[in-house]
Every structure is written in structure tokens, then in C-alpha cells.
Amino acid sequence: MAPLAALSLAGCITPVDYGDVRHADYVADARCAPKAGEQIASEALPLFFVTSRLPDCRTPAITLTRHRGNALRYGRFAEPREMHAKEKKRPGTPVAFENESDWWRALEEETDRRHGRILLYVHGYRETFDTTSKDAAQIARMTGFDGPVIQYSWPSQGEVLKYVVDETNMYHDVRHFGSFLRTLADRPWVKEIVIVSHSLGARLVIPAVAAADRLSRRAARETNISNIVLASPDIDRETFERDIRDDVLAPERIERGRHMTIYTSLRDKALAASRALHGYPRLGSPYCFDPFKAADLKAKGVPERCYPAAIPGLTVIDTTDVSRGSTGHSNFLRSAPVCRDFVDVVADKQTRPERAATHLPHVFRLLPDPATPKERDDILCKRIPDAEAP
């Protein structure tokens, strides 16, 4: 199954195409490039977004396409809902673009009203703007985050057979995302940035944080990127181990309070396919690439699961035993035990009694809770808005 899945992920069956509309026509309407001072219904659009996707402003409801845009665009959005399109209902995300200067001013005002904290969500593979908006809204609702929530949306294709296209667009977006994160981190009114990345998004986040540290205008060794969460990270585990302690989790960063939490699962089918495609284990799966190490673990009577090495500031949460969904790739949004852990991590609680210790001091397991059956996952993870919950 793994080689077949890897072939599917390669995307050789359905290559990306330019489309039948000139890209310039998508953005010709003035709503795609608002002027300074133009008002938007910010109360109806409570969440912030930054995107490198090409927008489509030809119809009354603006949409974000799967194509690369020619620049970063800034705006506001609300949770996806049923919207009318040519007398038919379809799920859609209410959005409005905002002039870049106005957007930064609004973000500052919202941040100042809270505690100087910002949550930045970076999505992964096989996503559309609607699906990432739904996830970002769920994160905001589930965590009750006490500050602005921003989603950064890069041009993922939203299709299983477009993995390589997604990977290509992700790497193409490294400069865009890095520039945005450096600008955000340099704002003096931003006291703390909590970064949550999912899947392929980890490969955007790690180099961008390292670059923001290196090029920061803040005082020496100071950082406001303190809390980094990698959910099901689709990144080479060995590369991560080799490089992370020299930049993102360098000793001087740990001394200033930075810490990182990784959610991993051996039941993650998406990362098993990615491993087959890339040839080496992914950070978000405790698969033992070394069979001799697996045999040693078995001889010691512990699970045959291999994790990144112990690094100061790093905590690994194994969600294998409470994995949910057909792929097990989004446990932090779908499994109640993981959701509860994730909420506390975002709130900067670095220890939890529900975590089961392992033979490694930096690795913990989450175990099934008889008091929270799977049937209540959606409610406890707040996948269902409170108004719709039974």
C-alpha cells in the first residue's frame, strides 16, 4: 500500500495547469487591491489572513484559488458557511481584502487590546482556502486564544494527487512566508507569537523562524517567537535532528523561553506515504527506520517507536493510541485527548497530568480516556460551533 500511496502522492496523474482564465483577469477588480482607508466589515470578519494564493475577484463573493499569486495579500475572514452562488448554496468563506497598511494597523489595535499575543497558523498538504479557514476558526474557538488569530495560506492544491505540486508551491513560498514572519516578529507591539503548523507547513516554519532570529531588529538574543507547535510535521526527521539545535532551538533561544511541541503518530497514513516517497522517516511519525534499533526496543519491552533525539526545549507527544480519522494526520483537531493537550500547549502549559511518561524524558504518550468516547470528539474539539452542538 505504501508504494502505491507514494505514487499517488507524486501527482504524476494530474499535473497542474494554468487554467482557462488569464490570471490578470482574476485580480482586475479593485477589491483585489483595496486603497488605504477603505472600510471593511471587520466585526463580521473577526479573523486575519495573509495569502500568496491568486484571488478571484470577478464575482460578488471573493474566492482564493489554487494558483500562485503575484504578491502577498492581506485581509479578514470568518468561518466558512453555506453561501449562495447563482441561486445555489455552496460552502464558502466570507473574506475581504484590506490595504496592507490598514491591515497592520488593525492587527496592532487588536493585539494591544489583548495581551500582545498572536497565534499564527500555517497549514499543510491537500488544503483549500476554505478548509484551512475552517481549521483556523476551529483553533481560535477551541483554544479561546486571547489575541488575534492569523492564518497564512499558501497555494496548496486541495487534491490527493497533487502532493508534488504542493511541495513545489511550498518551497516557492519560502521567501514570501519568511518575509512576512520577520515583519511580524519585528513589530514592537508583538509580545509573543505562537506558531502552529500542520504537515507540510513545518517546512515553511522552521527556516522562517531561523531567518527571523538571524535578521531580527530586536535586542540581541531577544525573541518573541516563543511557542512553536508542529502537528504531524512532514519534514525529514534526521535533517531536523541535525539542524534544529544550531538555530531554532539553539541554547540562547531556549534561555529566552522558546520551546517546541511535536505531535506524532505511528498511525499517520499520510506520513507513511510521504516516507515511502522520500525514502526516509518523517518527524511526525515514530517509525523506526533502523531495524536494529527497533529490535533493541522490543528486547527492552517498550514500543517499537523511534523519536527525535532529546534536545533542550523540545517535547514530543505520541498520539498513536488516540489517533482518529481515516488517515490519522490531524489528531490535534480531531481527537479529544490530543485537542485538550493542544489547548494547554497553546496556553503555554508545558506539563499535563494526562501525559503518560515513556522511557525517554522528552517523549510522552496520550492514552484513551474512557470518560471521553470517540463519539464526543467533535464536540470536545469544538469542530462543531457551540450554537450547533446538540
TrEMBL record:
<dbReference type="Pfam" id="PF05990">
    <property type="entry name" value="DUF900"/>
</dbReference>
<protein>
    <submittedName>
        <fullName>Esterase/lipase superfamily enzyme</fullName>
    </submittedName>
</protein>
<dbReference type="InterPro" id="IPR029058">
    <property type="entry name" value="AB_hydrolase_fold"/>
</dbReference>
<dbReference type="InterPro" id="IPR010297">
    <property type="entry name" value="DUF900_hydrolase"/>
</dbReference>
